[in-house]
């Protein structure tokens, strides 16, 4: 197992940065160039050679790793999973196929996909002991807290998830997490509304099965419209990965200590929960409902944002300084789903008005604030019937393959434990006061 985590530089052309420090030291640092011509200064030798470190709070300028999984060009609004444009995957692929692509790097053959789907089906149930664990949660327990707890708890019934030593175990471990996360989410919803939990149906597709577990009841037939199943699949595909976002970086960080896969993705759930990250989809709907219920003109809300009294939730992004391509796809999908279902949702009209107001206002234009993945996604989830407090759970279900793919990529590199440095700014040495 190598100690150093070698930063790959697909472009072999050697480039060097020259650093000169105030104390006169100078250092040549290699510049690595990615397959999409991204340039990064490799500072691995910096502290050892000069005693200096770099500092970059929130890591806006710092690459944590090289990765083959997802590419984003924030200026051009490009997103690709393993080189495939998100627009093409959204139109032609399925969630199971995208999950396979992200984790193993290539689109599966028909047999490989069929086998992966079989693994998902074979692992959709929860151990009855786990099912009983739900009794320990109050009905009003937040579904993200339950999801994170139950992912960790599931590892207690699947010790194989804790001894993931080689490629051979990965398909089963990945299938267990991707499949069971759906069952956990649905069970927590049924518990919260006092309905009997519905066991998965092995004859249904991934998305249809989730909808069955969420919305079917013992004494009535439940058949979701094909458009609803397709909209859910699209939602999950669009959320499946997004390179080194906060929750995925958390999963990689936790996995770097050789924590098992379940513990690592459970930590990703907790990071995703925050309103600046995956929790934004809930915050967007609450924002739209507030505008709708108060009758506040959109222009007034925008003015409050510009006075920094509020944030425009679902807007802005650390990487995208242009349209988030996922937002464009979700906006159209929301329109299509609502018209297919014959639903008129004033929140969609308010969202469009907000977008139009922001995109023509200098405050947002100069800060390059555009709608992100969370701005329209809640409209779709609402139309499907998902309760608002489960929106971020839906994001977590979608993101599971990405978390697994990144954990696996780092696991195979057998890199060093992630342990950032700091610049200490606290008190200098001082003695403990003598006894009075
Ligand atoms: C996701 O990283 C990923 O890839 C995440 C994600 C994924 O798929 O994993 O894409 C999913 O998390 C999308 C983002 C969801 N969050 C929100 O919608 C919450 C609202 N957005 C903001 O909180 C913010 O835009 C962030 C958190 C998304 C990005 O924050 P940054 O990069 O730290 O930007 P910043 O806070 O430094 O803002 C720069 C400027 C500031 O103005 P000035 O101080 O320079 O005058 O833009 C302003 C901010 O005040 N600004 C906003 C704003 N977002 C940024 N002003 C009003 N409303 C906003 N939403």
Q: Stretches where pLDDT falls below 50 for ≥5 residues?
A: 1-5
Neighbour order of strands in the largest sheet: 1-2-3
How many DSSP H or I helices? 18
Q: Which overall shape is indicated by the principal axes computed on the Cα atoms?
A: globular
Helix and strand string, N-terminal first?
EEEHEEEHHHHHHHHHHHHHHHHH
Structural class by helix and strand composition? mainly alpha
Measured between the Cα atoms of the first and last residue, the distance is 55 Å
| Hetero ligands | s-citryldethia Coenzyme A
Count every beta strand, where a strand is a DSSP E run of 2 or more residues. Answer: 6
Question: Strand fraction band?
Answer: 5-15%
Relevant terms:
436 residues, mainly alpha, three-stranded antiparallel beta sheet, binds s-citryldethia Coenzyme A
What can you see in these coordinates?
The strands form two sheets. A three-stranded antiparallel beta sheet has the order 1-2-3. The termini are far apart. It has 436 residues and is mostly helical. It has 18 helices and six strands. The protein binds s-citryldethia Coenzyme A. S-citryldethia Coenzyme A (SDX) binds next to loops.
